[in-house]
Amino acid sequence: EAGVTQFPSHSVIEKGQTVTLRCDPISGHDNLYWYRRVMGKEIKFLLHFVKESKQDESGMPNNRFLAERTGGTYSTLKVQPAELEDSGVYFCASSQGWADTQYFGPGTRLTVL
Amino acid sequence: KNEVEQSPQNLTAQEGEFITINCSYSVGISALHWLQQHPGGGIVSLFMLSSGKKKHGRLIATINIQEKHSSLHITASHPRDSAVYICAVRSLYGANSKLTFGKGITLSVRP
Q1: How far is CA A41 from each of CA A34, A73, B62, B101, rounded to the nearest angstrom?
Q2: pLDDT confidence of B1, banded at 50, 70, 90?
Q3: Contact status of B78 with chain A (Cβ, < 8 Å)
Q4: Closest CA of chain A from B1, distance in Å
Q5: How far does the CA of residue A34 sit from the closest CA of chain B (Å)?
Q6: What residues in chain A have per-residue pLDDT under 70?
Q7: What confidence tens digit (pLDDT) does each residue in B51-91 have?
Q8: The B4-7 sheet, strands edge to edge
Q9: What's the rounded Cα separation, in Å, for the pair A58 and A68?
Q10: Are residues A42 and B98, on separate chains, in Cβ contact within 8 Å?
Q11: What pLDDT was estimated at residue B97?
Q12: Comparing C-alpha atoms, which of A103, A82, A102 is closest to residue A11?
């Protein structure tokens, strides 16, 4: 069974540009989460999808971040326009039920110059 | 103060030693996760606990809900155990499944 995959693994962009991160959860997992680790800090929650619906987006930093999960399968996280403080590693995780173990993807390392 | 605190911050051990990593939290939780991340690698879920103790191979995780404390023990440590170990908790309240993370402990096991 394939695990959670994320694309790209690395992205380097300039301030003001747009970047879109993609997450493919484990097949059949209704719950999908986005997390972020900024250098030197702990991993923080961004948002949670149940199927295609946003269950909790309390961790989204501001309106420059837009997450979608059309069709309830893969998800995208778009940052537009990117700022220096958006640099970090963005992790995606998925779980079958909301109380089940979350399985993490390898992360996307975003560097904004 | 973070809701999830881990100690020690960094840890170096000799191969074969028994290792304990601690996690304390300040909120009511429904579950606690222990996660592992090897250098350059992804995050792997080791355990999800809501009470008592779980064992997998050389790893043992315990939790004391009353004291809001969990420990991860590694017996007969090996250099391949070198990784960052992260504690994360899921809130007790509502159908809220987001995780709150500690900063992680960097463990180095020397041969």
Answers
A1: 16, 30, 25, 10
A2: low
A3: no
A4: 12
A5: 9
A6: 1
A7: 999 999 999 999 999 999 999 999 999 999 999 999 999 98
A8: B4-7, B19-25, B69-74, B59-64, B52-56
A9: 15
A10: no
A11: 78
A12: A82
C-alpha neighbours within 13 Å on the C-beta side of residue A76: 10
**How far is residue A76's CA from residue A51's CA, in Å, rounded to a whole number?**
13
Per-residue pLDDT at B36 exceeds 80: yes
| CA-CA-CA-CA torsion sign (A106, B80, B105, B52) | positive
A41 touches chain B (CB under 8 A): yes
Closest residue to A99, CB basis, from B35, B97, B100:
B97
Q: Which residue of A has its CA nearest to B50?
A: A99
pLDDT for B110 beyond 80: yes
Cis peptide before A81 (omega within 30 of 0): yes
What is the structure's pLDDT at B91? 83
Note whether B45 contacts A102, CB cutoff 8 Å: yes
Give CA–CA dist A88/A75, Å, rounded: 18
Tokens of B42: 């992804």
Question: Does the pLDDT of residue B11 top 90, yes or no?
Answer: yes
